[in-house]
Automatic annotation (TrEMBL), chain A:
InterPro entries: FANCG, TPR-like_helical_dom_sf, TPR_rpt. GO terms for cellular component: Fanconi anaemia nuclear complex. This is FA complementation group G. It comes from the Eukaryota. One of its GO terms (biological process) is interstrand cross-link repair. SUPFAM superfamilies: TPR-like. Gene3D superfamilies: Tetratricopeptide repeat domain.
UniProtKB/TrEMBL annotation, chain B:
Pfam families: FANCAA (PF15146). Signal peptide: none annotated. One of its GO terms (cellular component) is Fanconi anaemia nuclear complex. SUPFAM superfamilies: Putative isomerase YbhE. It comes from Leptobrachium leishanense (Leishan spiny toad). This is FA core complex associated protein 100. The gene is FAAP100.
Amino acid sequence: MNMAAPGSCDPCLIRWIEANNDIIATWKRQVDQCRDAHTESQKLRERMDQLLKLMRDLPPVVPFAALELTVTYNLVIMELNADKEVKEEHERLIDETLRRVLAAHHLDPGGDHSCSALWRTALRAESLVQQAGIVHGLAGLQGLIWSVQKKSPEVLDLFQTFSTFPVTDRCALLLLLRSWAPPDEGSESIHCVLRPSFIKDIVYTAVAFQQGVEAMEKGDHDSALDLFQEAAGCCGTKSFMARIRNCQGLCFIQKGLPHLALEHFKQALQEDPKCGAAYYNCSVAYRRLGKREAEVEMLHLLKCVLSDPKPAAPSPRGHGFSPISSEDFVDVRSLSCASLAPRVSELQYLLARHCFEYKMMDEAADNYVELLRDLMEGSDVELGFPSPAPLPPVAEILLEAAACLIQVDRFEEAAAACEEVIVKTADVIPSRILLDRTKERDPVITDQLNCIVWVSAAHLFQAKIQALQDETKTSISSYSRCVNLLLKVQFSGADAGNESLTSPREEERDVIDTLKCCALIGRSHQFLQLGNLKEALKNASLGLQVLPACPEANNVFLSSLWKMERKKEAEAHWQKFKSSKSRTDDQWQSVKRSLPLSLHEFVNHKFFTNQTSIREIRECLGS
Amino acid sequence: MSVVQYLAGLQRPGMGITTSEARLILRQHTAYVSNGTNTVHSYDTRNRRITASILFPAKVLLMEWVPSMQQLYVLCAKSGIYVLDLDEEGRCLKEPDSTKSIGGVSIISISSESCCVCDPSVCSFTATCEVLVTASKHPNDWGIKLYHRKSMNGQPAATAPFREVQFSMKLRPGAAQELDESIFHPVLHCVTPWNGMESSDPCGFQLERALFTSAFGLDCSLLDSPVILGGFPDGQVVCFPLNPAGLPRPTNSGQHLEQVKLLYHLEQPVVYICATRLEVMAGEGAGGLASDCLMFLGHKGLLVRLMHLGDTQGVTRDFREFHVQAPVSCAVCSGSCIYYSTRSDLLSITVPLTPKEGNSRASQNPILPSASHSITYIAAMAVTSRSAEGDVELLALSSRGKLMLCQLSQGRGGARAGLSGVKSGKRIKALLSGIGTISERVSKLRSLLAQKTNSLMTLNQVASLSRVVLCAPLSECLVHCQIKVSWTHVLQKSCFVAACTLKNNTDCVLEKGWTLCIYLGTECSDVSASYTFPLPRLLPGHQTELYFPLPTQQSDSLDFPLKISCTLFYSFKEFAVDYGSSINPTDSFSPFRHGICLPLQEHIIDILHCFRLNPRDGHLVTSAATHWDVLEACLKISAGGYRCIREIRNLPEDFNRRRLNFTAPLKVTVRISSLLFNKVLQTKKTGVSRAVIHWLFPGEQAENKEEVQGLTPHGREICLRVQELSVEDATNFPTTEIEISSPHLDALAYMHMAVTSRIKTLVQQYKGDGCNPPMLKLRNVQEQFIARESFLKEIQAQRDKLCVLKGLNSDQVRQRLLSIYRELRQPGLLIF
């Protein structure tokens, strides 16, 4: 852009141009020297602001219009560089300059004095053609500000001016921006802090990303991918690029393409090794792929990143450095949603849980203990943004920890965890809960039901611990408490016996029945230890009635019959069990899927019966 | 029956104390009191005195005592929160900005260095569980910040908050302006679940586990996370756990954590939050320390009780609303009773327990009956003690700045309004009796007060009059006492009576109670007689007349000159009796000890004042009996005396006159320069002689006379003649002679003394008029002195001769003595 020289060699104009250029030169020199001096930047901003104020003391005249536009452009960019967020002051600066320039050129927007009308007038004015570059630059800044303020109609209207075809769809904004061709002629006499043509890339990237996040949240992953790809094609900081790649990966995960998601997550980590969301999403992708070790390793890496108090390394300066970037003009909430990463405590839980799931018991136990300690202490948690993996209720964490600790024979700690649940939850359990499966569930009743389940599970674990420590009678008492608690829950409504339903209420029913069954067969096993065969058989029979699909219930029942020398009955039951084994196995798998993690291991652990005895029994019956 | 003891006055100069400004907290036996100024007073409740006054840089809004750290936190308006580390005696551990002692009270000035949170927007706070929680008011929302307090090992507190929470205001329609003008501050408390053990430093309210879980969630209970409970002026009661892991979990990932949970909305400013135990179990031991109830009290009288509904399917939080009298300014809780102030009264209510589930709706009684304790204007209070019977002792600060100890007795279940009939009757009877007693006391006090007022007014008048009289110059007689003597007849007996005219020339009122004391005295004795006259009330310009006889009843004779002293006296006897003085009113009156004495004038009464002239022609008014007595006495001695007496009585008058004149009268003369008389008496018109007679005997009877005759009070005849002479000396000076003659020596002597004293007065008057003083004939004076000396010697010689020549011819001696006497009495002109 060849800016027309001022109409007259006004010494004031010349002096002001020199002042502007000096500020810009100092600014660029500071950037080139990689000096990150906040004070110096502030001084330069103040000088620029002072220069603009001096100009505004004079009435608007044409020879000074170009300089005023450039100074305003430079000042807004310098302010945005310092504030890293859009403020009303920035919009006010642009608006006032625009009005003065239009007044200097005697350009009247007509009856409409809105900002959009002013821009329409300015962008179409022939008298401003010679200052088109800087006018477009300012328009780009105005569009960015409106975009952050969610003023979509104004943004559309503004960039509509640049195109020859009308658009009404907000999604076509990118088309408008693509067709926008701001003049790339730099001013020779009046220097800019950023070439106006670069504004287009910043605007384009910010709008594309914003729209991509919105599409991703709506579930339109394909559109989101396209938009993110458009955003990734432009310039931006490494952290912003990492966010874009992360979002692309998320879209692929949602589409069921974890391999492709992994690729994008890795690209995100290459861009920004401190991108916590990328680590987490990687672990999710590995989980989808069944790669447990990789999943856990990713979580460990994320833990290291979150534990490191050092901030991310600054982006390299030099050629291509922009004082402003697209991420400065994206809604903070949108930005945060695109960078969801678990907090420290949540990450700790994920590690503990995954280790528990993958049978890495020792590591899981340590993680659970560390997590519980952190939870009790109450760490200073950043609560400003949501989390992709919120913690479950504390009672569930305690039960999972107890179950894990039992696996590694840390019985005292396990018992303490169970005791916590029992003591602090028992007071809120009513004497009876009647659940109508045909009606909507009150969240409060759900909470009460959960309390019953948790306390019952705690009693169950305590009974297990006592049984393992040969405290038979105490174990029987604990099993009894578990059963008595579960008996408070009564289900009513239609299809009470329909086991094919997989609604959440049926899952609750499955959990209740599994707990009841485990308690009964556990108590049966203890009676067997005491030699009370009659009670043992009775409890085993009850357990089998509660949950016929439970394989351990069958084993205990068989064992009880065998010890009572009722071998014919045992044989008959065995035959019956064999004939329906496939169906019961399916049922059992269905039930297991409903169970919380803490009960998974409980029901899988085969210590209810003497394995040798069962093998012998089966051999005898099989023969 | 409530008993109130006033302990101290902590008024704020110039204005009362509002509820939002009054603050009172207790720390064992010390009360910290703030009265809306920048001062916090430390009051020792055992010794009943103020021990210290702590001055802060700004007005004190809120205070809180943290027992575990022995710290006092104080919020100052538009400044921040200050923290003071105190020892067990209440002394600052850290050296304050300045300390001084006035009257046994330490004055401690605190500087900004003690400010731990410098945030002008803070309007409330609570310090608990190692955390300092502050609340700030923004245009449309409330802000809460959490700071780390100073840890037990003395590490400094963090200056920046480690967590910030904001939530929007929820105002009922039309309440925005009320909130802007609201004087209420947020009420913040910490709530923790009770862990079964008694703690020496409980972290705020300790709730039963079931209630805690119902109110704040199971996660908070499992984590034993303290929960901050806040009641705000817009009516919101919110809560949030200090442990962020206790926050309710979001239902979806990507959802923000709800950091603040709305527990209840009172739709009126929350003024009080408390936790207490309503249900007392039999044999309850340590379990009695946990509260089973949370209560929120609003300014407009809404009381919300939160309890846990045990063994209930579904919602176990039971919010129950009640209504009490409004407006509620402050409140305290003791057991199941809440004591609250409505400014016009102190009331108490008993919070009911949850009714049985079956009739929970039927027995709803939203309006709680309040018992009145008839104590007004309480702006802040705290419970000091509570007895097993439910009697409560409160320390309260009134809006007038009075620190009071209120002992409130509480009947079983609390005294309720809506008393039974019998109780109402008794109560009314007691009230009426009380009213009667008070009325009687008031009337007595009123009369006593009126009496005192009158006494003071009288004393004022007395003092004013005394001041005026005593300060006046001697020449001014503001209270003028004039004496006139006159003859009168009492029971056919002539006697002299003095008339005293007392005139009040002052501007003060001579109140009733004044006494005029008149003292009669002579040269021989100061007081020969005295009279006292109680005076009536004499207004300015008024006068009164009093009469008293001369001579007194004790003596028929008078010695002249007679000095009459007048004194005004006011006795304080009445005041001494009224005010229980030890003075016995029956004691002899001593004017100089128990009253005010104002000496007035002194008057000299000489024989001239008492001389009774012949009313017709100035001739002698004889008292025949007197004269006859002498002659008869003489004739009795001689032979044929009785025949001579009869014959004398039958003699014609001329003969009698001549016969009386046969006893040669004694004469004395006084010569004075006529010029003196002319100057002073202005004798041009009347002549010197008549002027002198008129001067000596003022009155119409003696006008235009040169000679007068009359009687003395004793009945002695005296004749006084004034004539002008030319002195046969070298100067030929005009002289006026006053000749006094009388057959009685005593009368003659009195008259001579009277005339000479008058002349002395005349000479002084002459001198006072500015004229040239009369000159003494010194030569004559010297001659007189020399002659008097010789006369004196001769008198002594003649007396000696009389003693020696006893019974011999003493007539010669007598004649010589008489002649000496005549010469003594006729010194000639000495003054001219």
